[in-house]
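In response to the reviewer comment on reproducibility (Comment 2.3), we provide here a single inverse folding case reported in full, input and output, so that an independent group could reproduce the run without further information from us. The structure tokens appear first.
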């Protein structure tokens, strides 16, 4: 179906503006664990297991156009009315799928009735979506294209005929009246002869014996086979007595076994990419922390203000602990952020938040921060300390260098490289020499890098921005978790930690003697 209102594109997706044949990843990228993205994405998709959303989050957008396409949809969904009716469409479609998913456990006529009910619910959901999209103020190409597609679909003669047919069959089935008589081992079913119905009389007579005195509630049992074999045989007898009505039901089900439009089926799944993420960050936003849709650039003049580690933020908020945001900025010939400072000062957390910001931006999502300007990376590479593998016959240093060589071979000027505490298994002199070579190669690659280290010599290299984790000026054993752009200060604050835990040389000697 061709959409003529927006760039004359053929609409088929609210994730991909141009293609419906995107090669989706089926497993997490290598950097997920290092950046805690496995925790973040796991928590996002957990309430939506039936939708198989993981590949959407595993696959980076194919360029700035796709990112901006998604950003505009996020802007529309941040409007309360748009979010509400798109979420309502999701709920109705979920109910349609619950009907369909239970069909194989049902008796024949019950199954056909569920198909009819699912179709009626689907047709109503699509009509409601068309009306709501038509009344909404939309600015995104994706939702405008969806609106045009749905409107043309709803107005099509085929859909109108099927919807009218389904509703007409439902009315005829609801109008059926029959009588049942029960004997010692026999149930007789016959057409209603106009006798008085005793249903209301019996319910009223015995209502005083109800323990709760509350009206009965009819619950939808979508996946529960709510009919036993006796009820199924009764229904079969009714179908024989009313062949016209049930014949129309059979004809409808046979000709509408796949009544869901494939494009709208894809949209139903894809909308959860947006809804799930907005739901995930809503808890964090309530605490006052900010999210923004970054300006997408093609150069390396980048920044992100008040950003934070999304996985850590969820844990801290759950324990009612404060979240400390930080800034980063690079421009001109600056290609690497070298982060130094005392241990447990937030250096690794800062590096993770840097990688998370670029990853989320590359998905077209709001990133943690008040304002940002980022480019779309072709990949993110991480080198974090790993537990030694007994089956790996290489030494620790050799393994580090082999991993780093692979990263440098694959990285481009559109790549992000994050290195955390590398070269701890060699001498200080060798570590400085090797580290300088690695940072130099990264800069010559024109990639963007964050390098977390205790070696302050790296912070003074050309093309490097020095950032230092801070401590409380009044008490050096207290970490503020702020990472500031400043020259390295040559202080590890190890003595302050030793004093806090009575592990100074004097205290140890005093205890021993």
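Designed residues, in position order:
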């Amino acid at each position: 179906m061709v959409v003529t209102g927006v760039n004359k594109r053929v609409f088929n997706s609210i994730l991909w503006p141009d293609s419906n044949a995107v090669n989706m990843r089926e497993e997490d990228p290598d950097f997920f664990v290092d950046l805690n993205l496995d925790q973040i994405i796991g928590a996002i998709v957990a309430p939506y297991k039936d939708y198989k959303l993981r590949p959407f989050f595993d696959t980076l957008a194919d360029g700035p156009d796709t990112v901006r396409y998604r950003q505009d949809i996020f802007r529309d969904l941040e409007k309360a009315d748009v979010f509400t009716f798109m979420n309502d469409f999701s709920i109705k479609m979920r109910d349609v799928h619950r009907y369909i998913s239970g069909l194989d456990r049902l008796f024949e006529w019950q199954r056909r009735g569920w198909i009819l009910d699912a179709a009626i619910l689907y047709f109503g959901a699509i009509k409601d979506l068309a009306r709501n999209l038509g009344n909404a103020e939309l600015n995104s190409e994706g939702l405008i294209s969806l609106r045009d597609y749905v409107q043309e679909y709803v107005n099509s003669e085929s859909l109108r005929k099927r919807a009218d047919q389904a509703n007409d069959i439902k009315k005829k089935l609801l109008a059926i009246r029959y009588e049942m008589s029960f004997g010692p081992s026999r149930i007789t079913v016959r057409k209603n002869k106009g006798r008085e119905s005793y249903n209301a009389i019996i319910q009223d007579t015995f209502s005083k014996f109800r323990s709760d005195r509350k009206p009965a509630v009819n619950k939808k049992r979508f996946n529960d086979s709510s009919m036993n074999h006796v009820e199924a045989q009764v229904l079969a007898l009714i179908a024989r007595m009313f062949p016209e009505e049930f014949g129309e039901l059979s004809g409808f089900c046979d000709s509408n076994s796949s009544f869901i439009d494939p494009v709208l089926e894809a949209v139903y799944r894809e909308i959860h990419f947006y809804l799930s993420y907005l739901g995930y960050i809503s808890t964090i936003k309530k605490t006052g922390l900010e999210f923004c849709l970054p300006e997408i650039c093609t150069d390396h003049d980048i920044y992100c203000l008040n950003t934070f580690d999304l996985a850590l933020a969820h844990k801290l908020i759950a324990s009612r602990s404060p979240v400390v945001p930080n800034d980063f900025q690079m421009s001109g010939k600056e290609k690497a952020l070298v982060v130094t400072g005392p241990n447990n000062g937030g250096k690794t957390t800062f590096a993770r938040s840097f990688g998370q910001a670029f990853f989320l931006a590359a998905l077209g999502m709001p990133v943690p921060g008040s304002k940002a300007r980022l480019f779309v990376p072709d990949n993110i590479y991480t080198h974090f300390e790993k537990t030694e593998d007994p089956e790996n016959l290489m030494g620790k240093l050799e393994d580090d260098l082999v991993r780093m060589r692979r990263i440098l071979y694959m990285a481009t000027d559109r790549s992000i490289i994050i290195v955390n505490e590398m070269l701890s298994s060699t001498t200080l002199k060798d570590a400085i020499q090797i580290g300088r070579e690695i940072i130099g190669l990264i800069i010559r690659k024109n990639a963007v890098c964050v390098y977390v280290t205790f070696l302050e010599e790296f912070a003074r290299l050309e093309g490097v921005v020095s950032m230092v984790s801070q401590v409380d000026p009044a008490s050096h054993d207290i970490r503020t978790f702020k990472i500031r752009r400043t020259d390295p200060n040559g202080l590890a604050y190890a003595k302050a930690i030793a004093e806090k835990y009575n592990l100074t040389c004097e205290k140890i000697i005093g205890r021993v003697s």
